[in-house]
Design goal:
The relative contact order is 0.13. The chain is of the alpha/beta class. A seven-stranded mixed sheet has the order 9-8-7-6-10-11-12, sandwiched between helices. A five-stranded mixed sheet has the order 1-2-4-3-5. The chain folds into two domains: 3-179, Leucine Dehydrogenase, chain A, domain 1 (Rossmann fold); 197-343, Rossmann fold (3-Layer(aba) Sandwich). Helices cover 41% and strands 17% of the residues. The chain contains twelve helices and twelve strands. Helix 3 (128-142) crosses helix 4 (161-175) and helix 5 crosses helix 6 (231-242). It binds nicotinamide-adenine-dinucleotide. Nicotinamide-adenine-dinucleotide binds next to helix 6 and strand 7.
């Protein structure tokens, strides 16, 4: 056995999200030059914590949930990445999401490593009190390894400002002092940053605008199809609609609504707030079954729900010019090849959805200095960072004749491994 044999829980045969990430690393390795000596570092998380999260349900029974916090890489700074509450969360998924955070943070050059957390739970089955107890117990279990200079969680699927406030408060009770910088994505009234809630959707829009310019697609009048109408997809929809694009199709967990003339996005938000999903929206001219969503012709397609949505099965159906990966890991490597073959320009997740962590970084900086910036300043800095990152990636892709995904990985992995090399191994 070589010293490169992977631990059993990193089985490359696993075709889950972690397997998807490993394939992406294999694709970038030939471009890393002398730094490829360190590439094994990227193929195994630095630290994995699996915790039992017991809570007392409102009916007096005791329920146990499985929780995780994975710190993939901390070569460039403390861990940073969201916490997901979802019934399908697995260790493979959290590992992949933590690794994508390493790449993403390096791609936009914020001084963080990559981490991610999650609980295998459907939060819709919990009361607010149960959700609070779950969040607090989970925070207590992972408090061993998180902290404002160690690892800083943030929201992800099904977690929000309220969950972050409970996490911050639990950590404060455990530590005996309040460090608002232990989590980001907090309420504005408790150390949160203006513009954070909209930041990921804004970043999707900004990188989309850059990509559209490269492909000669006018944003005004562009036909946009979006999967996921939550924090990322919903905000991206607002920004594209404000810029004159037509949101022709939206799919969420409840269904798919279509209007070739453009859905009224404000009305759709109201409908979702009232009913819990897009299904049954009266302003749609048609509904589609789940799979035919991918065949709807558009100028820009925005997967902004969950990973592994665009696969070898449906990639052939896709008729669009640009894909903006608002979600993490929405495209499998096999689908990636099919789409590249069709000359569809894909702005990869690790670049496209980095707006959220960028403003999380601003929030953390503001918390440390207790000095808060205006929304204009935040949005202007965010826009500049996203544009610069897009253009750096574009240059690498042109120079090396590779996709934007591989170019982003080249840029990011070079930064991470250069840090690893200069720091050296301990002891
Ligand atoms: P969210 O919980 O606010 O919204 C998720 C959306 O996806 C909802 O509209 C839901 O109905 C939809 N959805 C869930 N399952 C679906 C299915 N099977 N088919 C179609 N739609 C489905 O979550 P979010 O924060 O918007 O995150 C969405 C994606 O963006 C995730 O991959 C997340 O990791 C990624 N992301 C989020 C942020 C952030 O700041 N929130 C930052 C970077 C990346």
């Amino acid at each position: 056995m070589t010293n490169h044999a992977l631990p059993s829980y990193l089985n490359a045969e696993d075709l889950g999200p972690w397997g998807q990430y490993l394939k992406q690393i294999d694709r970038v390795t030939p471009h890393l030059g002398g730094l490829s000596r360190w590439v094994e570092t990227l193929k195994r998380p630095k630290r994995i914590l699996v915790v039992d999260v017991p809570i007392e349900r409102d009916d007096g029974t005791i329920a146990h949930y499985e929780g995780y916090r994975v710190q993939h890489n901390m070569s460039r700074g403390p861990g940073k990445g969201g916490v997901r509450f979802h019934q399908d969360v697995t260790l493979s998924e959290v590992m992949a999401l933590s690794a994508w955070m390493t790449v993403k943070n390096a791609a936009v050059n914020v001084p963080y490593g990559g981490a991610k957390g999650g609980i295998r739970v459907d939060p819709k089955t919990l009361s607010k009190g149960e959700l609070q107890r779950l969040t607090r117990r989970y925070t207590s279990e992972i408090s061993l390894i998180i902290g404002p200079t160690k690892d800083i969680p943030a929201p992800d699927v099904n977690t929000n400002e309220q969950v972050m406030a409970w996490m911050m408060d639990s950590y404060a009770m455990i530590e005996g002092n309040l460090s608002t910088g232990v989590v980001t994505g907090k309420p504005i009234s408790m150390g949160g940053s203006l513009g954070r809630r909209e930041a990921t959707g804004r970043g999707v829009f900004v990188t989309g605008r850059e990509a559209a310019a490269k492909r000669g697609v006018a944003i005004a009048g562009a036909r946009i199809a979006i999967q996921g109408f939550g924090n990322v997809g919903g905000i991206a929809a607002n920004m594209f609609a404000d810029a004159g694009s037509k949101i022709i199709a939206v799919q969420d967990h409840t269904g798919t609504v279509v209007h070739q003339g453009g859905l009224n996005v404000a009305e759709l938000h109201k409908h979702v707030a009232e009913t819990g999903g897009v299904a049954g929206f009266p302003g749609a001219e048609a509904t589609q079954d789940r799979d035919s969503f991918w065949g709807i012709e558009s100028d820009i397609l925005v997967p902004a729900a969950l990973e592994q949505q665009i696969t070898a099965k449906n990639a052939g159906q896709i008729r669009t010019k640009i894909i903006l990966e608002g979600a993490n890991g929405p495209t499998t490597p096999e689908a990636d090849d099919i789409l590249n073959e069709k000359d569809i320009l894909i702005v990869p997740d690790v670049l496209c959805n980095a707006g959220g962590v960028t403003v999380s970084y601003f929030e953390w900086v503001q918390d440390f200095s207790s000095f808060f910036w205006s929304e204009e300043e935040i949005n202007a800095r965010l826009t500049r960072i996203m544009q610069d990152a897009f253009n750096s990636v574009w240059e690498v892709s042109q120079e090396k004749k590779v996709s934007l995904r591989t170019a982003t990985f080249i840029l990011a992995c070079t930064r991470v491994l250069a840090a690893r090399e200069v720091r050296g191994l301990y002891p």
